[in-house]
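queue> pop job 88
queue> type: inverse folding (structure -> sequence)
queue> payload:
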C-alpha cells in the first residue's frame, strides 16, 4: 500500500505544484508547466530505488520511447507548417473564406461539424487539431470571440472521430482486446455519444448567434487556402500525418515564393521559427514521458489496477471498474491509446467474469479514455491546440463541452444500462 502510494506521489507533486498553486495564485502562468514537470521528475528519480545511473536510464527510456519521439516529430512538423502557412497568409485567407461562406450564427456549429467530419475520416484527434486550430484561432481574432472557446470546439470535435472512427487506433485496440468487430463497437458507441454530439451542435448553433463578423476583405485569395485544403484532403485520404504535414510545408513554400510573399531564405527562416515555437511543447512531452515511465517502473500503474479490481461483484460494478481503470491509467499516462493497451486485457477478464457484452466494454474503454484525454492540460491534444493558437492549455478546459458530455453519457449508460440490448 505504502509503496504504491509512493510510486504515484510524483503525479501528486506535479498536480500540487502546477494546478493547485496556479489556482491559489489565480494565474496559470505563475508556475510554468515545464518547471512543474521538471520538479516532479527530479522527485520521481529521487524516490526510485537503485543506482542513480539506472534510475536516469529508466526516465530516459520513457522520455525517448518510440511513442514520444513520434509525437515530437509531429510537433516539429506541425510547428513548421503552422508558421509557414501563417507567414504565407494562409490563415487570414482561410478565415476570410470561412467567414464569407458561413452565416455568422453557423460559425461555431460549422467548426464543430468540420472537426467531427475530419476526425471521423482520418481517425486521429491530433491531425484534426493541427489542421483546424490555427483557423479557429484566426476566426476568434476576426470575430472577437473567445479564442479558448473556439479552439475548444475544434478539440472537442476532434475526439468525436478519435472515439468513433473505424481507423482510429483507440477503436482498433479496444475491439481487438475485447474480441469484437469494429462495426459492432461503432453501433454501440453511437448510441452512447451521438445524442451528446447532437445536443452540442444545437448549443453551438445558438451560442454562435451573437457573434459579430467584422473585417472580412472582399479579395479572398483562394490559392493561399490550398495548403490547408491539401492537409485536410490528404489526411482524409489516409496518408500518414507526418507525410501530410511535410507536403503542407512544401506547398506553403511553393505558393509563398511564387506569389512573392517571401523568398526561399525567408521560407527557411519561417520553418525554423515554427520548429522553435514548439520547443516548450517538446520539452513537456519528454519530461512527461520520463515521469510516467518512472511511475510505471515503481509499480504505480499495477497498484491502481489491483486496487480497483479487488471488490467487483456485479455487472454494473464491472463496467464501472473498466471505466475507472482506463480513466486513471489515462491520467497517469496522458495517452488514451496507451491507457487502452494497458487495461484492455484486464477489462476483457472482468467482462468474462461478469458476463459483460464485449461490444459495450470496448465502447466504454474508448469513450472514457477519450473523455479523460480530452480534458488533460498535459495531454498531446491540448498542448498542441494551445501551442498552435498561442494560448494556455488550462484556458481551454472550461470550454471542452464535448469530452465532458461523452464522459457523462458513458457514465449514464452504465447507471441506466443502455443501450439495453448490449447491457
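queue> result:
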Amino acid at each position: 500500500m505504502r509503496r504504491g502510494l509512493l510510486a504515484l506521489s510524483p503525479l501528486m507533486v506535479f498536480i500540487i505544484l502546477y494546478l493547485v498553486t496556479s489556482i491559489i495564485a489565480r494565474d496559470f502562468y505563475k508556475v510554468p508547466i515545464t518547471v512543474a514537470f521538471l520538479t516532479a521528475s527530479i522527485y520521481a528519480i529521487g524516490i526510485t530505488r537503485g543506482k542513480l545511473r539506472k534510475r536516469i536510464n529508466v526516465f530516459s527510456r520513457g522520455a525517448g520511447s518510440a511513442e514520444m519521439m513520434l509525437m515530437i516529430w509531429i510537433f516539429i512538423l506541425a510547428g513548421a507548417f503552422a508558421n509557414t502557412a501563417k507567414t504565407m497568409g494562409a490563415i487570414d485567407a482561410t478565415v476570410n473564406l470561412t467567414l464569407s461562406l458561413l452565416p455568422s450564427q453557423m460559425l461555431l456549429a460549422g467548426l464543430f461539424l468540420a472537426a467531427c467530419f475530419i476526425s471521423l475520416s482520418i481517425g486521429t484527434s491530433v491531425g484534426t487539431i493541427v489542421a483546424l486550430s490555427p483557423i479557429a484561432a484566426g476566426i476568434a481574432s476576426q470575430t472577437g470571440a473567445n479564442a479558448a472557446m473556439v479552439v475548444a470546439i475544434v478539440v472537442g470535435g476532434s475526439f468525436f472521430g478519435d472515439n468513433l472512427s473505424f481507423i482510429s487506433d483507440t477503436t482498433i485496440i479496444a475491439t481487438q482486446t475485447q474480441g469484437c468487430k469494429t462495426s459492432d463497437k461503432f453501433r454501440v458507441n453511437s448510441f452512447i455519444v451521438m445524442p451528446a454530439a447532437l445536443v452540442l451542435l444545437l448549443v453551438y448553433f445558438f451560442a454562435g448567434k451573437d457573434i459579430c463578423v467584422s473585417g472580412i476583405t472582399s479579395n479572398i485569395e483562394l490559392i493561399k487556402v490550398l495548403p490547408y485544403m491539401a492537409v485536410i484532403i490528404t489526411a482524409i485520404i489516409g496518408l500518414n500525418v507526418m507525410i501530410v504535414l511535410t507536403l503542407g510545408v512544401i506547398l506553403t513554400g511553393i505558393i509563398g515564393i511564387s506569389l512573392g510573399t517571401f523568398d526561399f531564405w525567408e521560407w527557411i527562416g519561417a520553418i525554423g521559427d515554427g520548429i522553435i515555437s514548439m520547443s516548450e511543447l517538446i520539452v513537456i512531452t519528454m519530461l512527461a514521458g520520463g515521469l510516467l515511465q518512472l511511475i510505471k517502473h515503481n509499480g504505480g500503474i499495477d497498484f491502481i489496477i489491483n486496487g480497483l479490481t479487488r471488490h467487483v461483484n456485479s455487472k454494473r460494478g464491472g463496467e464501472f471498474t473498466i471505466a475507472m481503470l482506463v480513466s486513471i491509467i489515462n491520467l497517469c499516462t496522458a495517452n488514451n491509446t496507451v491507457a487502452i493497451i494497458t487495461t484492455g486485457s484486464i477489462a476483457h477478464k472482468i467482462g468474462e467474469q461478469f458476463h459483460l457484452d464485449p461490444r459495450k466494454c470496448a465502447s466504454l474503454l474508448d469513450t472514457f479514455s477519450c473523455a479523460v484525454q480530452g480534458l488533460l492540460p498535459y495531454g498531446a491534444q491540448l498542448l498542441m491546440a494551445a501551442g498552435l493558437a498561442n494560448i494556455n492549455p488550462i484556458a481551454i478546459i472550461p470550454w471542452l463541452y464535448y469530452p465532458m458530455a461523452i464522459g457523462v453519457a458513458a457514465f449514464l449508460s452504465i447507471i441506466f444500462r443502455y443501450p439495453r440490448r448490449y447491457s
